[in-house]
Amino acid sequence: MLIKAIAFLHQQQRPVKEHLHGDQVLRYIEVTREDIRAANAIAQSVLAQSASELSAPARTLLTYIHAHVKEHCAAQKLDPHEYTFNRKAVREGIGWSDWQVRTHIRELEQLEYLKARSGAWGKEYQYELEGDGTEAGAAGLTLTDPDTLREPAP
Q1: Rounded to 5 degrees, what angle do the CA atoms 118, 120, 126 make?
Q2: The pTM is what?
């Protein structure tokens, strides 16, 4: 259905073709490989988000933290599991309020994307990425690979 919708959006730029079916002439436009690629991109984005166990803000925060850790580890030549960070560094980097950072870091901890290495009430918390710090989501979900399709018979 998504592929049809994308082809429909391009109907004014496509030639109308005709096919004789019995005594009826059917008029149509053809779907292109680019229509299928566009549908795959939309589906990948939507399906990845809907299959995610994270809320949208937590996913945004995880993406930021992953990039932050990767950047600092490259600069300091550290393994990502050796690098720790605190909420203040995250707050300043992403520009969120303390409440937002605390709330979504808690979600990331509960779902085991982050681990608190140290900290307690009244003391600074230090965090590290758990695993590879990424969310697999729905990677690899596609409608149809347009490069595997054969051309229709004339």
Answers
A1: 30
A2: 0.54
Domain ranges of the chain: 2-51, 56-129
The helix, strand and coil proportions of the chain, stated in percent and rounded to the nearest 5, come to 50, 15, 35
Query: What residues have CB less than 8 Å from 148, skipping those under 6 apart?
Result: none
Structure token digits, residue 112: 């085991």
- pLDDT, averaged across the chain: 82
Longest dimension (CA), the chain: 83
pLDDT attached to residue 116: 85
Contact indicator for 25, 38 with CB cutoff of 8 Å: no
85 Rama class: left (phi>0) / alpha (psi -120 to 50) / beta: beta
Taking only the tens place, the pLDDT of each residue in 25-83 is 999 888 888 988 888 888 776 766 555 678 889 989 998 998 989 898 888 888 888 88
Q: Considering only the top CATH level, what class is 56-129?
A: mainly alpha
- Sheet strands (E) in 24-133: 24-28, 114-118, 126-129
> In whole angstroms, what is the distance from residue 144 CA to residue 149 CA?
8
Closest CA to 105 of 49, 51, 56, 62: 62
